[in-house]
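Thread: quick sanity check before group meeting

JM: Hey all, I'm pulling together slides for Thursday and realized we never actually wrote out the predicted structure for the chain we discussed last week. Dropping the sequence here so it's in one place. If anyone has concerns about the input, flag it before I start.
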Amino acid sequence: MKPPSWLADTIARRFALTEILVVGATLGMVFLFNNLSGVWAKEPLEQSGLLHEIADIVRIIEAAPPPMRPSLAAAAGSGSKRVRWIPPATDAAAFLDAIKGQDEGIARIVAAETHHTAVVLQEPRPKDRPAELELSPQGLPEYTMAVRLLDRSWVVLSSPIRTWGLPQTFRWLIRMLFLAFSISVFTVLAARRFAGPIKDLATAVRGFGVNPQAPAIPESGPREIRQVIRTFNEMKAQIQKFVSYRTMMLAAISHDLRTPLTRMRLRGELIEDADQQARLFRDVDEMQTMVDGALAFFRDDAVSEPTTTFDLANVLTTITNDYADQKIKIRYEGPMHAVCEGRPFALKRAFSNLVENAIKYATPPTIELLRESNSYIVVIRDRGPGIPADALANVFLPYYRVEKSRNRNTGGVGLGLTAAQAIVQGHGGDIALSNCVHGGLEARIALPLMTPFPDGNIASREQQSGHSPGKTAR
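JM (edit): ok, ran it. Output follows.
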């Protein structure tokens, strides 16, 4: 049975659940504060009723004649609260006139309520406090409040315990802190849980560009993300099917084209005119080269090559070694080891195409490997005449050749750079050609890191293996 739509795992439901959890956690922390923080959770002084009680006591004592005030003050005390009247012109009254209270905020509140000057005395007590103000037995800690009457006498109220809570400002500040803590915790948790499927999808999309044969992505996350993943999997399956059909079609074309070319070469053997025979064979060879080049490009052998972790520096030094065996000196500059992820044989073909172009049209190039923050940079630089500026934008087009001659002895069919670009872009990278200031052509290939190093240092992983960057020449 399909669950109701409002119970489905959707983005809206996750946001709503996060808000509910934030509110619930905040209320829970406020409840715990009110039940576990003791006196601090009680009503603030303004709402406790204590101010009205103090004002009433002050008014009654002030309205009574001085002889009756001590007895009225004693009768006004209740429970742990004690009240005492201090006559004017005494040491205790002079002390209260001169002292500055410890809690001016509460003193101002009491003064506003009673319309008299008020002083609050709290621990630690002044050492010179007169004995008349020691209202608490055995000198226990106490909260003492003194209100001066119009005749400059004082009404002193004392309690050994605090009977009111924090002011409203602090109470709201604590609630806001609870709310901020709840929002921070649950928002981070919800964001991580929400971003997980999106991150997996982004990684899979990037991996599909490197390995078209990658398996389907598991559907996870809220309903909207699952729909995106399902759509991507369907699209990937269609692309894989299209590539498979294309490969089958090209295999058939390869067979059908090579057969008539072979028959033409066999029939050419029967031509008695040696000159005409040589011309025919040249045409057949040229057609064969064009067919082989086109099929090699469209077949895309890299599709069947698995993605793996390999040493990019080793691939580049292997190319220099291959040409060294042909007595062609190519210098390599860069680290001895550079861990990369991709299709090593496909990348070797791409680099070899660029090196071959440099050897064919210019000079043996220099290969340099650099490390930037999120990518490896391979630079292939020669010292030849370069490429005309108006041709730089077209060199990657299929069948485009800067050298206009159709003589295949001086160039290929115009697919080498196109194939190199396709391979590099298949790895999520980019390739660009530019003329050097002092002459020559520079090919710059950027390959993104599949798993960036946390310290951003090219030597980080090599050092773990006991290697360090350096330069080699071949």
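AS: nice. Residues 70-159 form one domain. The CA atoms of residues 271 and 277 lie 6 Å apart.
JM: adding both to the slides.
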